[in-house]
Amino acid sequence: xAEKDVKVTYTVVLKSQPGGPVTISATSDxxxxxxxxxxxxxxxxxxxxxxxxxxxxxxxxxxxSIRHEVTTATTAYPTSMSISGVMMTVTADPRQVLDLSTASxxxxxxxxxxxxxxxxxxxxxxxxAGGTSLLTFSGEGIASSDYSVVAQNSFSLTGGPPPAATATxxxxxxxxxxxxxxxxxxxxxxxxxxxxxxxxxxxxxDQNPTTVTLAGGGTVAEDGSNSVxxxxxxxxxxxxxxxxxxxxxxTGTGIxxxxxxxxxxxxSSLNSGVTLN
Length: 277
Known about the structure:
Oligomer: single chain
Helix content: under 10%
């Protein structure tokens, strides 16, 4: 079998009715070389002669043995029973690796972002063609209306090594004040001679300003015996981890910095991510 998550299967079955539930476990001596699942299978008196399947997934080149043990026993199948193991040899994955990257991140709304596709192990002038879209698009806050892409079904690899191709993602412009978005481009439906490599991430910079509204105010005495409140409101909610800094400018006729102080009102709090300067 080959590395990089290539899978093979084998089956186990009992030779006779067990006289109760019998569980057979499977363990890889080198799980970094090959993993086996499920961890165990159970036979009963009603299905003892129906083969059950273990799946081995190649992870890295090398060899390992899959050991089997009886973990739930009966008189006919004691825990001391010897069960043959399965030797697995994991070879280099012959498939060519397709990696995605971009030099167009971050990119503004309303502009194109260029994706670069490189193929390790491929030859130049080699097509990569699928019956349906080869690219996937996902990301926090991403909708299908946020982008469009040209030529998703096939690419022609040229130059190299390694040979490469490009794809263009057109980022849609809108009038919505919103956080910056992250578009993640990956692979799907690849021909059998290729496997997915790295994904590409494009940070989309919103081009619509966030509006800050001030409300309140009033008259204060020069002796500091009273104060007024000013409320600062943003035009949209913030997303997790986002920070917006709101610079406050104090001006007026004859006003100097020594004429006032400005502090957050007692009992009030700032929404997460908002800083007042």
